[in-house]
Amino acid sequence: MKHAIFAAAVALLAPHDTPSTRPEDGPFPAHRVVGNVYYVGSKQLASFLITTDQGHILINSGFDQTVPLIQASIEHLGFRFQDVKILLTSHAHGDHVGGHALVKRLTGARVMVMTGDDDVVRSGGKGDVEPGREWEGSPVDQVLHDRDKVRLGSVVLVAHLTPGHTKGTTTWTLKVKEGAQLYDVVIIGGGGPNPDYQLVGNLKYPTISEDFARSYRILKALPCDIPLGPHGNYYGLEAKYARLQADSSRNPFVDAETYRQMVIFKEKEFEAMLARQRGLKPEPGTGSASYQISSRLGPAGSPRQASISNLLSR
């Protein structure tokens, strides 16, 4: 029955021509990441379910067309979609919050959004994204601030304001126990500037470059055993899931080194982009950050190198 529900949800997605359903994306097997943290997103758009005995927390809704897939993934794992009590997000772009309004209608979940992104979620991106790319706006039940704690049952998530990708980009941290081990999980809010970002003289976002620089300092200071993010390629989802299927005795998502290198890599890319826009010569080593980091992560095409290199496109 669960497999039938999952297949039906995938069929619902098929007619829609959105980034969540184009050939480069598609369904991805729902699975446990660690403890009570589960992956319930698509191949490229990450959504995470955090379960408790008082209901569940969902991070990221994808597009509205992605919501049936998320629902099917949750139910495939044996949980009830209607038990989602809190809906959170990484950042207010349509591929992560476009389904918020639908999730709220279906579950009644409280929508909590970081200050800076709250108006964007309410308006459906109007005035903040390119015309024609807006989504259905969602009510926001609570506006969060830096280091606010979101509690449900025994779970405590800490919201870290890491702006730049959007004004309210939020990196979530929580401690998760599995067996006798306690892990620091970091769900990164946004990796860095997109290629079309204006880092200098941005009248709509004058502090964008300062915000990015501060966010990298915050990210480097966070303890992390398990890095996750709003897109699967932030942390090598496909390769790690394949390793998990091949050998479930070791958790491939425990990968502190990838997190450390990932933050360094994105900071160097940001610094190089900022220098170019300022008309300056990049600092020594900045332009070759990709080579310097990749060379320490193993041969070309290795899972760890791929998880770092793919960040360039997000």
Question: Care to give the gist of this entry?
Answer:
The chain is 32% helix and 19% strand.
Topology:
Blueprint: H1 2-13, E1 31-34, E2 37-39, E3 48-52, E4 55-59, H2 67-76, E5 84-88, H3 94-97, H4 100-107, E6 110-114, H5 118-123, E7 142-144, E8 149-152, E9 155-161, E10 170-178, E11 181-187, H6 208-221, E12 226-228, H7 237-246, H8 256-277, H9 289-294, H10 303-309
Parallel strand pairs: 4-5, 5-6, 6-7, 11-12
Antiparallel strand pairs: 1-2, 2-3, 3-4, 8-9, 9-10, 10-11
Helix pairs in contact: 1-2, 6-8
Name some characteristics of this structure.
314 residues, globular, 10 helices, alpha/beta, 12 strands
Report on the structure:
The protein is of the alpha/beta class. It is built from ten helices and twelve strands. The chain has a seven-stranded mixed sheet, with helices on one face. It has a five-stranded mixed sheet with strand order 8-9-10-11-12. It is globular, with a radius of gyration of 19 Å. The two termini are 36 Å apart.
Cα-based radius of gyration, to the nearest Å? 19 Å
**How would you write the strand order of the largest sheet?**
1-2-3-4-5-6-7
Biggest sheet features: 7 strands, mixed
Q: Which overall shape is indicated by the principal axes computed on the Cα atoms?
A: globular
Secondary-structure element series: HEEEEHEHHEHEEEEEHEHHHH
Q: Report the strand count.
A: 12
- What are the segments in which pLDDT stays under 50 over at least 5 consecutive residues? 1-23, 286-305
Percent of residues in β-strands: 15-25%
Structural class: alpha/beta
Distance between the termini: 36 Å
Helix share, percent:
25-40%
Q: Count of DSSP helices?
A: 10
Mean pLDDT: 85
